[in-house]
Amino acid sequence: MVQFIFDTLFRAADLALIAVALSAVYSLIRFPNVALVQYAVVGAFVGMALQQQGVPIVPAVLLASLLVGGIAQVFNAVIFQRLLRLDPAIALIGSLALSMVLSAGFLLGFGPAAQRFSVQVAPATRVFGVRVTEMQVLTGGLTVAILIAFALLLFRTPLGREMRAVSTNPVLAAATGVNTARVTGLVVFLSGVIAALGGAMLALRGSVSIDMGTNMLLPVFAAAILGGLGNAFGAVFGAIVIAAAETLITNLNFGPIVGQDHVFLPASYAPAASFALLVAVLLFRPRGIFVSEVTRV
Amino acid sequence: MIEAQDLRAGYGDGADILNGISLTAGRKELVTILGPNGCGKSTLLKTIAGYLKPRSGGVKMHGKDVSTVPIHEKVRHHRVGYVPQTDNVFRSLTVAENLRLGARGLDRATTARRYDALMEQYPVLASKQGRKASALSGGERQILSLARALIAEPEILLLDEPSAGLSPLMLHEVFDAIAGIRDSQGMCIVMVEQNAFEALGVADRAYVLSLGQVAIHAPARDLLADPAMRALYLGGHVA
Ligand SMILES: Nc1ncnc2c1ncn2[C@@H]1O[C@H](COP(=O)(O)OP(=O)(O)O)[C@@H](O)[C@H]1O
Ligand SMILES: [Mg+2]
């Protein structure tokens, strides 16, 4: 049981930041920018590249995240705003296309091998009988800290109030003097930063390969939809549900059902859990698990 | 304070909705815009506010040409308040947050003072400060949207059907409040209305639009008194 909780929480931490970023931009520009999962990979790779150039790890990660925030803004201005004028569905397809292009770019730029930050790896310790590494605890804590910081920004500052205002009613926000284009740009920037931080946390816990983004796409998307797209902190909840489902499906003994002692699904079946949940939610609660009015960023 | 000159405007690359409208409104004046549904009243207000750029003609405020100044800059630099016809509150924000957004850019002390004054003036809001705007009734939302615009103490106030969804009792309360602001603060108010009779009761002048043009422009008193006008355009309510 303890093992299950830890596995779920760490997996949820993997997904949460990127899902929150996806949900936050959705609330302002009304299409799910799936390229965010690739922005996470860029964040990790650029961070590692900077470290190889001799930049200490903390500034390397921060610098990489800011850079990705800028890249997110550029892509948004150059590509997505144009596609959005045509149709949100076209923008979604555009973001898929951008994902593929970025993915191909990674292969050229970084090669197919998985890469990791160079950090001293302390031996794993046991907590409540569960193997936990120092990096898992550290990055898990950082993930929670980043989420709290984002929540405080959103709900406790005038700027956050403006972000929420633009999200619920851009026309009226402009009538209170809010420059909606600027606020939207800022949220796009923040989404890039948060996604990149998410990618860096993933890289710190293990390694990052060029197909990480593609692999993360389904669970991250499912988490964001589960939480109600546009409801940033619903996405955290969605991440936990998806993580629990994935952990469950790979740890459940299906033996008794098929008349054998032990039958476990291989880990590669984990995405099936997200997929099944995604379909179920879309069928029964297309606006997410939370009822009608949600606080949208 | 407002001089609109021969405005032509429309949406996207669609046809002109406004076909050359001129309008003025001065300090301490309440001007109402009447006319049948779809004749372009809201479009006119949006063009004056700066959501739509005029295709030709221009808008001056305080004597300056502001035809191409977007709404968020007008609000900040030209003391303009605008209350749209629909969706005029931030539904997922609380009543207090709605008002704080209206007070954007003001210092703390001023905000607190005006906030308290509005709470006193509109007790319906005072008892629901922490509630989401989505939980308010239609009438309460209209009051909130008005209060949100007023907290900034604009010199020019553009109101699109402030009486929509109000009970007759509330309607009179809101119109009296609007006339009161004109008198006490010397505000310049342009108000689009469906309730023609009631609007003419508090307004100084009226423009009646038809097909994107000014069909009638007259003092409100004259319109109310003219039987032909009543039959033709007002008929109790403008259709
Ligand atoms: N956002 C919009 N895009 C395109 N056409 C619009 C839009 N808003 C209004 N219209 C059209 O402009 C015309 C005038 O509308 P409007 O100004 O809202 O009228 P009113 O406020 O007098 O009822 C109508 O024909 C309406 O269909
Ligand atoms: Mg209208």
Automatic annotation (TrEMBL), chain A:
It is found in: Cell membrane. Belongs to the binding-protein-dependent transport system permease family. LivHM subfamily. One of its GO terms (biological process) is amino acid transport. It comes from Frigidibacter albus. It comes from the Bacteria. The lineage of its organism: Bacteria, Pseudomonadati, Pseudomonadota, Alphaproteobacteria, Rhodobacterales. The keyword Transmembrane helix applies. The chain crosses the membrane at residues 12-29, 57-83, 89-114, 135-155, 183-204, 216-243, 263-284. It is a multi-pass membrane protein. CDD domains: TM_PBP1_LivH_like. This is Branched-chain amino acid ABC transporter permease.
TrEMBL record, chain B:
Keywords: Amino-acid transport, ATP-binding, Nucleotide-binding, Transport. PROSITE patterns: ABC_TRANSPORTER_2. Residues 2-236 form the ABC transporter domain. It holds the Pfam family ABC_tran. GO terms for biological process: L-amino acid transport. InterPro entries: AAA+_ATPase (IPR003593), ABC_transporter-like_ATP-bd (IPR003439), BCAA_Transport_ATP-bd_LivF (IPR052156), P-loop_NTPase (IPR027417). It comes from the Bacteria. GO terms for molecular function: ATP binding; ATP hydrolysis activity; branched-chain amino acid transmembrane transporter activity. Belongs to the ABC transporter superfamily. PANTHER family: HIGH-AFFINITY BRANCHED-CHAIN AMINO ACID TRANSPORT ATP-BINDING PROTEIN LIVF. This is ATP-binding cassette domain-containing protein. It comes from Frigidibacter albus.
